[in-house]
Each structure stands twice: as structure tokens, then as C-alpha cells.
Amino acid sequence: MKTTTVALRLLLLFLMGTGGVSCSTGKPSPPTVGEIPPVGIVTQKGDRQLAIDVNPAADDDYETAFQMAKDTGIERTSLFQNWDTLEPSPQNYFGEWLQIADAYYPAKGIALDLTIAVIHTNQSTVPADLRGKRFDDPKVIRRFKALLDFTFSQMPNTDFASLVIASEHDIFMGTDSPKWDEFAAFYKEIVAYLRLKKPGVIVDIKKIRETRAVTEEGGGWRIGAAVTGAELKENARLKKLVVD
């Protein structure tokens, strides 16, 4: 029976290819995962963390699947909830999964990347009574703040590594510039609120145009907070500037 996620299966396949796992007999056992010597240039771990998304096991034995992930050295995992799952009707909340996570992961010493999706790929997941309203409507913003308050009240012991408020929402937005603008306004309000409630927690900033842009401005450059180093290296105008 399958008890691991795709990510764990891929890890096991990798280890089989590198000598971490062996099915042969009559030979000395290969080193365990923790004993495999590093190859090539070693970069110190620093403050980086390993995260694996452990899904429910096919045989419902989540504990075994999670322990396999933990044995690889993970320090964080994730929990995904849609807004309308947590708030199925106006200001009536469902927190069972939040409570379960709060009882389970802190006891394992694992931090949590929590997603509360306002948008999930190609659809809005706001409660039904709010659909049709703009994302930057004050009522929508107030209700999401109230949802965050409820969420944190259900998870007093959880070490939040990050909080994500949309999933692949570029599919939903498409090329609708006004929709991007209203969501960006909503996002900025929520980020400011989270900074007060949970200082230091990373808030997802993917797919917000301003954070992904590299633009010339006033004789200088404005570089968005989510622009990667690789993207900077690939920017033709910036490369020319450095070379010149």
C-alpha cells in the first residue's frame, strides 16, 4: 500500500540511484540517508529550511508517511485551506483542520506554511455572500481580517513559517488589469495586518506585478521584492549596465 507522497517517492528513487537505498543481498548495507557523504562543493545550510508537502496517505497511515518525511530532515510542511471552507457562511467558521494541525505539528517540532486561498487557480473562494464584490471592497477586507483572527485563535501553538493567501491566481486574473489592481490593494491591506498580528512571518508575494517587475525609474532602477537573482542576471539592460 502506498503511504508516501509523490515527493517522497521521488526522493527514494533518487536515493536508489545514488546508493542511498539498495535491494541487493549478500553485500554490506549502504550508508543511511544521514550518512551519505556530500559530493562536490558543500554549501553550509545557514538559515535555509527543508520543506516537504506530505499529503494524506493512501492507506490513511499519515503518521508513517510523515515520519518518513521527517527522517529526511524536513523542518516545515504545509496546510491548504480555501476561504469558503473555513467560513462556509457569513462569520460562521469551521476550524477542525486548524485545531488538528495545531495539536500535531508543534509536537513534532515542525513549522507550518499555511495557505488560506482567496483565489484557487481559476476560481474565487470567497464566501458566497461576498462573490461579485471587488477584492478591495472594505467589507471583503474586514471579513478576511476576521478570518485571520479566527485562524490564529485556533492555532496558538503553531510556528508559522509563512502564510499564503492565493494559489496560482494568475490563472484567475489573466490579463484583467483592473482585477490585478484590486487584488494588489487587498493584498497590501492584508500584509499590513499580518505584520501587526504575526511579525516576522513570511507572506506570499508571488504573482503581484509590482513585486515581480524590474523597471527604470528616475535615472535609476526599481526592483520588485520578489525578483530573483537569476532574473536580474538575465535582464539584458541590467547586464549591459554592469558591463559598461
Total tally of structural domains? 3
The fraction of residues in strands falls at 5-15%
Shape, please? flat
Q: What is the C-level CATH assignment of the largest domain?
A: Alpha Beta
Mean pLDDT across all amino acids: 79
Summarize the amount of helix as a percent range: 40-55%
Unreliable spans are: 1-26
Largest beta sheet: what is the strand line-up? 1-2-5-6
In N-to-C order, the SSE pattern is: HHEHHEEEHEHHEHEEHH
* CATH fold category name of the largest domain: TIM Barrel
Radius of gyration: 22 Å
Q: What class, by secondary structure content?
A: alpha/beta
What is the number of E strands?
8
The CATH architecture classification of the largest domain is: Alpha-Beta Barrel
Distance between the termini: 61 Å
Number of helices: 10
Quick gist of this model?
This protein has 244 residues and is an alpha/beta fold. It has helices at residues 6-18, 62-71, 83-86, 96-108, 138-154, 170-173, 177-197, 209-212, 229-234, 236-243; strands spanning 76-82, 111-117, 119-120, 123-124, 160-164, 202-203, 214-217, 220-223.
Question: Would you mind describing this structure in some detail?
Answer:
The chain is of the alpha/beta class and 244 residues long. It folds into three domains: 1-38 and 47-74, no CATH class; 75-204, Alpha-Beta Barrel (TIM Barrel); 213-244, no CATH class. It has ten helices and eight strands. The chain has helices at 6-18, 62-71, 83-86, 96-108, 138-154, 170-173, 177-197, 209-212, 229-234, 236-243, and strands at residues 76-82, 111-117, 119-120, 123-124, 160-164, 202-203, 214-217, 220-223. The strands form three sheets. A four-stranded parallel beta sheet has the order 1-2-5-6. Helix 5 packs parallel to helix 7 (177-197). The longest helix is centred in the C-terminal third of the chain and has 21 residues, at 177-197.
